[in-house]
Amino acid sequence: MRNNVFSRSLLASAIGMAATALLSAPVLAEGPKRLDVASTFSTQNFLGEGAVRLSKELETATGGAVSLRVHEPGDLVPAFEVFNSVSSGAIQAGWDWMGYWAGTVPITNLYGALPFGPSPEAFMSWMWADEGTELIQKAYDPYGVKVLPCFISPQETGGWYNQEINKPEDFEGLSVRISGLGAKVLNKLGASTQLVPGSEIYLALERGRVDATEFSVPQVDAAMGFDEVAEYYYFPGWHQSASWFSLLVNQQVWDEYSDERKAQFETACRATLQWAMAEAPPEQMRTIRKLEEKGVKVKRFPDEVVSALQDAWVEVRQEEMQNNPDFAEAYKSLMKHVKLIDEWYELQAMPAPKPLKDEGES
């Protein structure tokens, strides 16, 4: 009898100790099950659709445990206030084009719109296989913002114009909607540049507030209706060889997630990046053909114009590297990485395939 009492006493003591240990053990951080995301782009176009795609990939990666609620521009905060709002904790997360924050974090000019820069494939390689993500995160750390580069668009177009550009002097006095380093290049050639939010560009062109605009790839531009208010569509997109878009998360919110959950975010991010790079290129040519059928005049800038733009870019680049050490560090790192990729493809270069004969090739 006494043994039974003693055994029950030991059992009760063990249970009590286990319960105490359980209550005192640290709770694994899991973070919010749904993040409210303020998008800088409408989810009805390709750029905003990237955030929706990311949410689907995140649900898949987490088995439905975490998702994103993507809000349209202005629903939570104005589009150009997303970064500061994520930084302050006013909102949990945002979906952006990196170049919008160049006024606060100058290095984002390089990630958002680098004139005469590398291909999207080379840029993507630097971002995820070299130090691209590390350098942009270092720049965001003082603001308490976690950045996940999840989406890249192809090289953009040269823009929509209501007059022909036949020589460099044609930019003089021209009012152009353009952002980032490209704006500084056009300023060198005498253009007047301004940053107009995407939702306001159509009216700005229609009412003559601007004479020309760049915005995105043909797939997006066509959805915006720019062909209704501009006559000429110019190429190449010298000012933006690749455009990075990202998920921004308030650092304190991000820190609530476990390491496993953070890894799932990155998995979803990379899956979204792969989707964007696979989907976008062929769709641009389909869109251009439809625009030509509607009467849009698709043109290339003359070589003289491209050469003048490139000369102006050399000046701007030198100024940026002298005035912004972070930009200089990132640019040198990027170009070093791109050189390796270029050397590889040069070594593997193949002659163009010979045409087929009598085989009904079309």
If you had to describe this structure to a student in words, what would you say it looks like?
With 362 residues, the protein is α/β, with parallel strands linked by helices. The protein has 2 domains: 34-155 and 242-283, D-Maltodextrin-Binding Protein, domain 2 (3-Layer(aba) Sandwich); 159-240 and 297-347, D-Maltodextrin-Binding Protein, domain 2, CATH 3.40.190. Helices cover 49% and strands 14% of the residues. It has 13 helices and 11 strands. The strands form 2 sheets. The chain has a 6-stranded mixed sheet with strand order 7-6-8-5-9-11, with helices on both faces. A 5-stranded mixed sheet has the order 2-1-3-10-4, with helices on both faces. Helix 5 packs across helix 13 and helix 12 (303-323) packs across helix 13 (325-347). The longest helix has 35 residues, at 259-293. The model is unreliable at 1-12 and 14-28 (pLDDT under 50).
Q: What low-confidence regions span 5 or more consecutive residues with pLDDT below 50?
A: 1-12, 14-28
Average predicted confidence as pLDDT: 91
Overall body shape: globular
> Could you please say which CATH topology of the largest domain applies here?
D-Maltodextrin-Binding Protein, domain 2
The rounded Rg comes to 25 Å
Distance between the amino and carboxyl termini:
97 Å
How many individual helices? 13
